[in-house]
Amino acid sequence: MEATGGGAPNRSVTLRDVARFAGVSVATASKALNGQPQVRAETRARVIQAAEQLSFSPNTIAQSLITQRSGTVGLLTSDLEGRFSIPILMGAEDAFGAGQTSVFLCDARDDAIREKHHLRALLSRRVDGLIVVGARPDTRPSLGRDLPVPVVYAYAPSDDPQDLSLVTDNVGGGRMAVDHLLRCGFRRIAHITGDPDYGAAQDRARGALERLAEQGLEPAGGEVWFGMWSEAWGRGATRMLLERCPDVDAIFAGSDEIARGVLDVLHEERIEVPSRVAVIGFDNWKVLAANARPPLTTIDLNLEQLGRIAAQRLSAAMEGNPSSGVETVPVRLITRESTAPLR
Amino acid sequence: MEATGGGAPNRSVTLRDVARFAGVSVATASKALNGQPQVRAETRARVIQAAEQLSFSPNTIAQSLITQRSGTVGLLTSDLEGRFSIPILMGAEDAFGAGQTSVFLCDARDDAIREKHHLRALLSRRVDGLIVVGARPDTRPSLGRDLPVPVVYAYAPSDDPQDLSLVTDNVGGGRMAVDHLLRCGFRRIAHITGDPDYGAAQDRARGALERLAEQGLEPAGGEVWFGMWSEAWGRGATRMLLERCPDVDAIFAGSDEIARGVLDVLHEERIEVPSRVAVIGFDNWKVLAANARPPLTTIDLNLEQLGRIAAQRLSAAMEGNPSSGVETVPVRLITRESTAPLR
DNA sequence: CCAGCCGCCGAAAACGTTTTCAGAAACGTA
DNA sequence: TACGTTTCTGAAAACGTTTTCGGCGGCTGG
């Protein structure tokens, strides 16, 4: 028979059922299952066994109602591809200790009114906190200061310095990329990157230029090649670069997409990578970077880490220890074959 | 003053507060706000205004407790990249009518015990239904028949035919790809695809071969080129193909990644696409397909649609109209420049 | 003027838990 | 034996809603 079997969480077996089955009151049953001290060991055992036999699963909703904590957080994103939100979600799941906290994922699709809508819904569900993940790494409008729950902005910082924002360290990433190329022995380093309206493009470029300047170097071609975040621009810029500056020996691309375009043209021109020209990307977008020819050295955005920190800060804020300002999360160098020490 | 301002959803203003403020009982307030008929228009207006002034937001948790419906569903995925789950999530959000239903996204990371863990948590949160998104389009173990809520399997079908599974129409997609090439006038068509252990690879190939056979054709090279889901395999296979069968005039790649490898070699060999050889991919993975040179015609998996249908079927099941078996969702041809009518 | 009806409102129960507090049982001590 | 103490248990209130049902007042028709 199935009735007492361990299998089926039958529809709605409640604490009352468990209590009755164990021959105690609901109060005692509750205390027994929650490890409260004031219950005899033998009684507790009986209750626990009853719960198992009935495959009791406590109704979190009722618990939330009374404890005033839902054990949920909202993850509000506008990231159509899920490229940023999923790693961040995974980091957050980790940090929240699985099973303790569940997360509502809402995609606002870059639409302010849809975002407002989702926000209302989440608040009405009494989430304990909110993580807001932007679509692009530039400041975004704050949700406001008067929300009843703590918020942390991840990837795209809030425009209100009073909020807490977590961003990847683009300046540091730019430095790191150039530093790696320098360590490998390259000196004539160009930087081809994306849309100059993006803070990320500016920051990565700044980091790169700073590190070059420390060695008394200028970028190959004289300045940074801003353009678009696409392979096509990577190809076009590389062609111009090779013409203007044929002795370039390394290219730092502002994204892996751009890097793919760069590699493509180098390959077309029969220029060996990395022995003649080294290439480094940015983002560690696996499908692009790992499949490249040769596999692409790049800067990993460390998004799980970012998600983990977001969850930690949110937990702290929920305990009453809020923080504010912009915190930058370090990035990581992923070495593959498109850069290598010059002999 | 902020007190009567519309802005801040102040901590926990309850229906009692609204009722008191409007000078009615909680019962009446509830009915007024929910559009129940047995309340005078004037009274209703007073309550609504009170609610607005206090910026009342009903506590969904309390509502759920009494209505026995949480208005939430769980989306259980193992899709590390979010490539499948996010579109499916978006489709589901659409179909559920925004704000009515919220979704918990849980990433099991292909780990059975983590999945079990998430499942317990979701059931304990009393989700109204479950969508299970697999990592790869092959059958996966069923969650079991004795769950207290309806389940629909999306992308990866369940191994229990009693369950309802929604899968993309890989056979139809294979047919569609070849059909498109035929319409464009190509006749010597090769098929390079991924790991033969994947049902998706087999199905796409089957569709392709069927359509070819209808024209009395065989695939160029005699058979399907199975291998791996990577650009590298796409490159290798293309080289072999060109050697063995230099008069090939079209290549159907089993994925966009493979297609990129194919294009790469054709380009290297200075073979014009599409005038000499046409290429079609599969997946419509934007970053790969749209950035390709030339932009890649491909088969779109139609995942939002799949998510929408999943949500509809789930809703139906929640209303007491379950279905079962495997339902295939049609795919879509996305025409770009890598195929074009001959001449 | 009265019976009956209808429209509107509110008291109270219910949902499934946790927590408080009073009381019962068992035991040791004077 | 009486009493204080310690352990353990259970009744009841609380969380914030929805829903049922009884009641009150006014209106209509006879």
Quick rundown:
Chain A has 343 residues and is of the alpha/beta class.
**Helix share, percent of chain A:** 40-55%
Principal-axis shape of chain A: elongated
Whole-number mean pLDDT of chain A: 93
Number of strands of chain A: 11
Task: Give the quaternary arrangement of the chains.
Answer: homodimer
* Gyration radius from CA atoms of chain A, angstroms: 27 Å
Number of helices of chain A: 12
Which strand-content bin applies to the residues of chain A? 5-15%
User: What's the N-to-C terminus distance of chain A?
Assistant: 73 Å
Q: Unreliable stretches of chain A, pLDDT < 50, 5 or more residues? A: 1-10
Question: Main β-sheet of chain A: number of strands, strand sense, barrel status?
Answer: 6 strands, parallel
Give the helix/strand layout.
Two copies of one chain form a homodimer.
Chain A: H1 15-22, H2 26-33, H3 41-53, H4 60-67, E1 72-77, H5 85-95, E2 102-107, H6 112-124, E3 129-133, E4 151-154, E5 164-168, H7 170-183, E6 189-192, H8 199-214, H9 231-244, E7 250-253, H10 256-268, E8 278-280, H11 286-289, E9 298-300, H12 303-318, E10 325-329, E11 332-334
Parallel strand pairs in A: 1-2, 1-3, 3-4, 4-5, 5-10, 6-7, 7-8
Antiparallel strand pairs in A: 9-11
Chain A binds a DNA duplex (30 and 30 nucleotides) through helix 2 and helix 4.
